[in-house]
Amino acid sequence: MTKEHPHAGGETQLAENLTVNEDHVLAHNVDEEPVEANRRLFTGVLLKVVVLLAIAYSGFHLYTLNVAPMETWSFRIVHVAGALVLGFLLFAGARFVSGEEGAARHRWTTWFAAAALIPAVYALYQTYAFHQMILGGTMRIPAELESWHFGWPLLAATGVGIVMSWFHQRERARFSVPDLVLIVCSVAVAAYLLVVFNTTMRMTTGTAFAPVGISFAAVAGTALIMELTRRVAGMALVVIALVFLAYVFAGPYLPGFLGYPGLSVQRFFSQVYTDAGILGPTTAVSSTYIILFIIFAAFLQASKVGDYFVNFAFAAAGWSRGGPAKVSIFASGLMGMINGTSAGNVVSTGSLTIPLMKRVGYSKESAGAVEAAASTGGQIMPPIMGAGAFIMAEITGIPYTDIAIAAIIPAILYFASVYFMVDFEAKKLGMRGMREDELPNLRLMLRQVYLFVPIIILIVALFQGYSVIRAGTLATISAAVVSWISPNKMGLRQILHAFEIAAYMSIQIIVVCAAAGVIVGVISLTGVGARFSVLLLDVAAHSHLLALVFAMFISILLGMGMPTTAAYAVAASVVAPGLVQLGIEPLTAHFFVFYFAVVSAITPPVALASYAAAGISGANAMSTSVASFRIGIAAFIVPFMFFYNSALLMEGGWFEIARALITATFGVYLLSAGVLGWFARSAAPALVRLLLVAAALLTIEGGLWTDLAGIGLAVVAMLIQRKRAPTLAAA
């Protein structure tokens, strides 16, 4: 999703966020929630209504997860419906216009939408009538009644509401009638599913006995999810979801492995709103772990811990060569781990770090690329890993703690690679660090180191055996308690504000998970994932490496333009089963897919994180994406090593793991030197760069003989560089 920051003006943002006081504290409000270009900014009564709904939505989840558990599917239905209601309240379907211009443009759409409001309300009323019939002992509602008094009115209202919202242009502080229609339709879908779907009729889904109203509700619900996804995450995921939906009905006519017997419209949609699709693993995770950690992140944000993370990074590393770039690695990695979105993290922390990188000598492209690579790396940084670790645990059944432990070495290698690239470029260009009088006071930062306590409590609780939900709740409570001894104390107002911003932050990821659920449903119901696995096995018969390369390209292709959560969920359904059938361990296979789904955010030609960084730095978007791809190059190599050396995922003895870490880190160092062309204090010629890249690949591989060969090539490269040193000095 492309976000518009309230002060997205590069140097202007630096002036806004970088104010130096007597302690030289730089960062202020860097983790302030960005305001998207199509987000409404209400005032007065409307603002109060939205705030109360947002607080209630977040509070409902925290209460239900910890105090009064709700029946699983009912909880997920309410979870998705609440996000749809808040999403249509907050995000407009068309651009905003000024008063006089808008008056002429919204008049006809208002009348059409007002007419559509009648069938929408009627469909909602029918859910109440059906409920009364069921309470009266009716075992099955007549199909004609469901079709003509609920289904067709609901579909008509949904279709008219969506289309009118595309043309309905109003002022930013005004609500719209088309979106009111969509809200009523969202409530009607949820009400029907809770009344009819959540009874004994639920057992009939996918059969000829399924009530026809479920299919109508699922079609309308899917359309509403697609429309809100378009508003908050762009067209990429919508287009991919529509392609998969088209495959459901076109598949029987396709040749080769894509062909399948076919599903009717009613049979498919009677199942897509079950745990085989929208209410499946992706929504299961978003309704529990993700929403909980979004609330945790909101509490950290409300208590200004994000500012502290960035200021601490500046105090610790800002003085070194290319200081702001190294600060970006630390701060963006830490914040990206928590907030779960690469592009959103670029906008928040990059608004401060990118202008500072440009100030000390980095080009616009390099400054944006470093921020994009660091923010993307946050998605693979344990213990939280954005939201991917939770979805991986849900899909594979592997304990979350095992996944977090396995991610340690790959995360070290990724951030070490980015650090080496940044440091080599700083040496190459002769950059300086920031002066002491430009940096925050390190002693002051160390006195506030207790602000890391909530994250420490989270990690300790997880590894003490607490459930993820209990550990996340304890960390959230500790964030509020710790704030009471910090300069930014959280009172009741700040706590309620944290619940409010948590609801706003959650809308995108919840609706994206629901949209990904549609794709996952298509894959499971049509069996295309299994047929893809057969294709992957055929490729592997010739070469396992070729099969892995094929899986890499598919994972990146599926992830382009999509948020990390959706990208991994889709790739895990299509690619990972085939890798498991190749004999790869499930953890290794899913990590392989997960890493390439993550780095799709910095992979040209569609690189969301790089594009967001380019918007702040003022650089060309494609140039920035190419530069970020180069900086994050290790992430494209390390996953292949999982297949050859499982010690990189902490599987094996301690000596084996330690040797793998040391040699792989050395390999990443050589790889960075070879890619950037700087080694042994001087620029490296083409031959030396080739030797360094070859040595890097050999040492990352992890075998004893390959390590020795890699070290040998590195020594040769060093000797060549030393032999050239007198010549370079004379020049």
Description:
With 731 residues, the protein is mostly helical. It has 32 helices and two strands. It has a two-stranded antiparallel ribbon. The longest helix is centred in the N-terminal third of the chain and has 37 residues, at 99-135. The two termini are 49 Å apart. The model is unreliable at 1-22 (pLDDT under 50).
What can be said about this structure in brief?
This protein has 731 residues and is mostly helical. The protein is built from 32 helices and two strands. The model is unreliable at 1-22 (pLDDT under 50).
Give me some keywords for this one:
single chain; 32 helices; mainly alpha; disordered N terminus; two-stranded antiparallel ribbon; 731 residues
Termini separation comes to: 49 Å
Spans where pLDDT lies below 50 across 5 or more residues: 1-22
**Largest sheet features:** 2 strands, antiparallel
Tell me the radius of gyration. Answer: 27 Å
Instruction: Based on Cα principal axes, name the global outline.
Output: globular
Summed over residues and divided by their number, the pLDDT gives a mean of 86
State the helical fraction. Answer: over 70%
Strand sequence of the main sheet, in spatial order?
1-2
Output the structural class. Answer: mainly alpha
Proportion of beta-strand residues: under 5%
Subcellular location: Cell inner membrane
Protein name: TRAP transporter fused permease subunit
Organism: Marinobacter daepoensis
Function: Part of the tripartite ATP-independent periplasmic (TRAP) transport system.
